[in-house]
């Protein structure tokens, strides 16, 4: 059956639907056998067995309520606007524990798709099979792999209070995103950071950045990791009468003053309608805005914004695409920090190293840069 226009498929890892933080720690400390005993409540953990489930019972995780709200959205619309799936890395026996836990919740019938990798990563084949539009996980490597495949993905923070209690019938679903490196590409983020590197003072660096954004106002920022997802959500919203859209899409960006116009023009060019709020906080704390609005979820590329924001709503870090502008910038910064040289000099050194490391091209072929090591920015 073909997918309806705007139909969104979201794959949740089991660790964001259930509170498996202690289970993960047991696995790291005691290995596969210790983890199996912990999950099945055998051996030293026999006293923890839930009599109804016959295994360990888990509390809900940081995105359980969001998933439940999405399911209620489907019920209210009378059609599957969003398809929900769950991924796990468990073997058959411990995977059964997860299934029993999910079956004991209000999400029992909502997870139409489930995949378990028996300890392996969530593969490209798994995403192809589900046709994933958005992947939410606790694994840095799985999120990075999805981003590199062109799938919107985020590493979810585990909130200080453990869970969020949303009104499951709250309508619409409020999704908040950062602009640069999330809704859009990260070239403007690189421009900002390079401007701060170049300027003699922070104020001078900021002005260099603003001047560049004004100059390029007519040229949209390239597509980013969430562009396609947001455009698809915009399509879905357009199927509903004004005021009844199922999703409220908001932009929460540190851009301010004269840098705002390019963000607006970029969203329009990419077919994104921020039908919620557009907040340009000019470097102020994003957590203040999140505390006031309490959205269902917030996505950003910088942990400095996500950590404080996690007190008020689920937050997810969007990785930078391997070999993208921010990847290359961070590689130059890493080299500069290790060799104590200016980032521009480091850039020349990186280019020289890449050229030296490249194999000689065959006749008539262009030489290609090697992919380089993966960078995991904080």
Automatic annotation (TrEMBL):
Coiled coil: none annotated. Pfam families: 5-nucleotidase. Its EC number is 3.1.3.5. Residues 350-378 are annotated as: Disordered. One of its GO terms (cellular component) is cytoplasm. GO terms for biological process: nucleotide metabolic process. GO terms for molecular function: 5'-nucleotidase activity; magnesium ion binding; nucleotide binding. Keywords: Hydrolase. InterPro entries: 5-nucleotidase (IPR010394). The keyword Hydrolase applies. Residues 352-371 have a biased composition (Low complexity). It comes from the Bacteria. The keyword Hydrolase applies. This is 5'-nucleotidase.
